[in-house]
Amino acid sequence: MSDDASYASFLDKANADSNSASTKSQTASQSKYTTNSVTTSVPSSLQNLSATYVSDTDSPFEPVSLKWSQKSLPGSKRLAELIGHKAEVEPVEEKDFDARGQYHDVLEKVKAAGDGKVAVFRVAHGGTRAEYYVVSLDGKEERVVGVKAVAVES
Description:
By secondary structure, the chain is of the alpha+beta class. Helices cover 34% and strands 26% of the residues. It is built from four helices and seven strands. It has helices spanning 2-32, 76-83, 94-97, 104-113, and strands at 52-53, 59-60, 62-67, 89-92, 119-124, 129-138, 143-152. The strands form two sheets. Strands 3-7-6-5-4 form a five-stranded antiparallel beta sheet, with helices on both faces. It has a two-stranded antiparallel ribbon with strand order 1-2. Strand 6 and strand 7 (143-152) form a beta hairpin. Mean pLDDT is 86; it is low at 18-31.
């Protein structure tokens, strides 16, 4: 009987250590592939979107709201600075981002939150991971607003 209890205790301890390490690893992995996307208030229309970006792993769209006092949207280099990213950021045509028309509602919400125009950027994280930023200019509030989603592209 004590052998069974000892073995069960051993298994419980081993599983607890394994689960703890897995959670820490997953959290570190997630933070490694994300950027700073909120530095000012987020428009209510962009909070709690139910849409997801479909890639090898589906990812929810998250709000973006960055302080920006310029009269036009930032280019790739300035966006990289705003989000604290040191690697490649490249513009993506709206038609290429939404080739199948599945993100029409997301694009329209971003346009409505800003000036009616939208820009899409791909933020490379090395290998197969990237983030897509869909942004618009909100000149009244001096900010860039929109959404982002993490993508795994193999």
